[in-house]
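Objective 1.3, modelling of assemblies. Example input:
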Amino acid sequence: MIRSLRWLSTLLALVLPFAATAQQQGLEIDIVGGNAAALPIAVVPFAGSAGQTDIAGVIAADLGRSGQFRTLPERDMVERPTTGAEVNYATWRLLKQDFLLVGRVLDAGGQLRVEYELFDVAKQSRLLGEAKIAPASAARDVAHQVADAVYEKILGVRGAFWTRIAYITATGTGRNRHYALMVADSDGFNPQAVVNSSEPLLSPSWSPDGKRIAYVSFDRGSSSIYIQNLTTSGRELIASFRGINGAPNFSPDGSKLAMTLSKSGNPEIYVMDLGSKQLRQITNQFGIDTEPVWSADGQTIYFTSDRGGKPQIYQVSSSGGGATRLTFQGSYNAKATVSRDGKKIATAQGNGNTYRIALFDRGLGGRWTTLSPGSLDESPSFAPNASMLLYAAKEGGRSVLYTVSADGRVRARLAVPNANVQEPAWGPYRQQR
Amino acid sequence: MNAPAPAVIGKVSVFGKILVVALFCTMAVACSKKVKEVPPTDTGTTTQPTQEQPPATTGVYGPEDLDTDACLRQRVIYFDFDQDALRPEFQAAMACHAKYLRDRPSSRMSLEGNADERGSREYNVGLGERRGNAVSSALQANGGSGSQITVVSYGEERPTCNESTEDCWAKNRRVEIVYTAK
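Predicted structure (tokens):
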């Protein structure tokens, strides 16, 4: 009991400072639930100043949101070392911390020089020591990169904090309805409108290099698929056939686009070669086939189909042929998102009137976990390292976004005031390896 | 899930009353104009006209009827959850809109399919199209020409009602008949 109370107060202390800073940016982040198995880490406030950005705060928020780490509240830090020489391991052992991150921000001729060191408290050893130089405007980018490095060093899995997300906002009502395709940092900060429209926008999908976003717009009266270039701001009309032009999804090499077209009279999956604009029909079955998603090796396409009655997830070779049904739990499974290794598939799963995000782990002999507690949750999208997902939920009459750890234990809400936020898509790593 | 749209049922009964009046008027006009009369399929309807009877079997429709004719004014077709089957109460509307298309070969209509907010957005675009196609098929079965009809699906993107309730969902699961040329 005392333990759980202490845990609760720790959690509140963890949440409140972030909530305060986040609100200034028009964004609410609250962390719900916690993970007992999370690794304790102290991220000590960095020495020096990076302007508006609290570097350590951004790092701690990233690590906390992942569900893999439990960050020590600042008020419990009886010592505030900023270099390795100042670290007194006994203090951090007493505070039951496994890891310790310290750092400082220095001026490097008008740029920021961010130095940081990561320590293993039990082994009393330094795990990482690095300096990053960046313009002051990129302070948050540097913080996300440090969080990625810490995440990878400790867990052996590449971090995905220095990534971007895309989503659709819908504001106003009736004739004043306004839609925007937005791009923001993975924690919801720095939101930028990429496309504005008075007609509905849907289904943003990132190119693997993160430079383009395919999406659906109703600006021509019915649905059309466009590709927006984020670097040049140019946009290209890709598909505007009779009927549905929907659910675009880039192939892993970026050369092809899978999509749904109903030009034959029935929604089917097609693959378009973006160079030649040649179409290849992948499915041919009575029923709605939609929401294609490529496997990382480009060999398989996952999609939603109601050929068996209710919508379920199927897979088919990316060159066409027979399809195999993958999901059997839940009366409704749609909008699959698939981890890079192909082992995890998350869907919007419906049972009766309740729609939640559910994760199917094929690696564990096919086990399902429900990741979200809402009643109208939809549009799951994996982070590139599959450690977290983004999804949309309906709360108090409007839609908001959540990130949830892949074990479902930690959720953070990303809400934009006075707007419906929907159709999130987590972008790729910003640096290719 | 058999969730009817209560508002519509209310409207139908009002329409029904207007329909009876409209029917007698049309019949009177039809007689004086000596328009070829299509024999009623149900013999009982001559003495006791009901709202199911298509009034459009007499006379020729003109654009003004879109505003005045009770049957033609019914331009929203509602559907059950996850269904694209046409409910029986909309058969009369199918018959009169099909007759309008026949009477006015230059007329064009757009069938705008919609779904409620539950489930994925792209699947709902598919569902909206399927509902639009169901209405298109029913109109063609009643003699309308497919070349006069286009189907567009908005999925769940154009709700008329914004609450997450059964009542609201029932209102959003619909096909709207929009005449693009009268």
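The mean pLDDT of chain A is 91.
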